[in-house]
Design goal:
128 residues; mainly beta; four-stranded antiparallel beta sheet; 0% helix
């Protein structure tokens, strides 16, 4: 059984930083395609960060590029999202996701319907 559990969310001021963690069981992150998505109230769930199986290929939308970084720790079987220079528009519930097939990243950024397993989410609130 695959389980993803996020942690690390909270309240932070504009310009601050947070690191989200995703603890994975039932799959090795070293061989998995992992991503982060987020969903603000009343909006669709949006792609935030992608990490390929090789642990090197990373993708971000323009809205977070240069501010967010996705990484993994194979020994702990965890994936992280380091967020800096946070803005009020980053406020959302952040979800960790695992895909068992490669999203069509040669065409576009990953979509949420390409992911098989999801965590319960962690709230990030950026106050101005």
């Amino acid at each position: 059984q695959v389980q993803l559990v996020e942690s690390g969310g909270g309240l932070v001021q504009v310009g601050g930083s947070l690191r989200l963690s995703c603890s994975v069981s039932g799959r090795d992150v070293s061989g998995s395609i992992m991503s982060w998505f987020r969903q603000a109230p009343g909006k669709d769930r949006d792609f935030v960060a992608y990490l390929g199986k090789n642990g090197k290929t990373r993708l971000y939308p323009d809205s977070v590029k240069g501010r967010f970084n996705i990484s993994r720790e194979n020994v702990k079987n965890e994936v992280y999202l380091q967020m800096s220079a946070l803005k009020p528009e980053d406020t959302a519930v952040y979800y960790c996701a695992l895909s068992e097939r490669e999203p069509k990243i040669w065409l576009r950024l990953p979509r949420d319907d390409e992911y098989d397993y999801w965590g319960q989410g962690t709230q990030v609130t950026v106050s101005s």
